[in-house]
Write a structure and sequence with these properties.
Layout (H helix, E strand, L loop, with lengths): L6 H15 L2 H14 L4 H6 L18 H5 L3 E22 L10 E23 L4 E15 L3
Antiparallel strand pairs: 1-2, 2-3
Helix pairs in contact: 1-2
C-alpha cells in the first residue's frame, strides 16, 4: 500500500506479530526494515535492540497504550465515482415496392433509439476516537435514459 499515517504503526505491529509467533527470521527482517524507514523517533528507540540484545529479543518498553494512539481521534473519507454510457442505433434500409434497378429510390433511415448514462457514486466516512467508531456509508445510483420509438 502507499505510505500513509498508519504505515509506521503497521510495520511495528507486523514485526511484533512475527516475534510473538516465534518466527525470528521474519521478525528480525521487519525490525530492520522498520529502522531503515524510520530511523528516528520514540518508536525507533523502542524497536532498536538494546546493546548486547538480539534484534528479536523481548521489547524492553511496552507498545503505546490505546489512549496514546487514539488521542484526538481521526477521520477517514473515501469513495468512488463511475459512469457508463450505452448507445444503441438502428438503421432501416427501405426500397420502393416493384422498383429494383433504380438505386436512387432507396431510402435509408438511421436513428438513435437508445441512449443511457448510468452514474454510481459511493461514499464512506469513518470517525474514530477513544470511545467511538462511527461510520457513514452512502450509495447513489442515477440512470438517465432516452428511448425513441422507430
Amino acid at each position: 500500500m502507499p505510505e500513509n499515517e498508519l504505515s509506521r504503526d503497521a510495520r511495528e505491529f507486523l514485526a511484533l506479530a512475527y516475534e510473538r509467533l516465534g518466527d525470528t527470521a521474519r521478525a528480525r527482517l521487519e525490525y530492520e526494515n522498520y529502522l531503515k524507514r524510520y530511523p528516528e523517533g520514540e518508536d525507533s528507540v523502542r524497536v532498536a535492540p538494546a546493546p548486547g540484545q538480539s534484534a528479536t529479543g523481548p521489547r524492553s518498553e511496552p507498545l503505546r497504550s490505546p489512549a496514546q494512539m487514539a488521542s484526538g481521534g481521526r477521520s477517514i473519507v473515501f469513495g468512488s465515482l463511475s459512469q457508463f454510457y450505452y448507445h444503441g442505433a438502428s438503421t432501416i434500409d427501405t426500397q420502393q415496392q416493384g422498383v429494383t434497378a433504380n438505386t436512387l429510390d432507396r431510402t435509408t433511415l438511421s436513428l438513435t433509439d437508445q441512449s443511457a448514462l448510468i452514474s454510481n457514486l459511493d461514499l464512506s466516512a469513518r470517525f474514530l476516537d477513544e470511545t467511538h467508531d462511527n461510520r457513514i456509508v452512502s450509495a447513489i445510483r442515477h440512470a438517465e435514459l432516452h428511448q425513441r420509438a422507430a
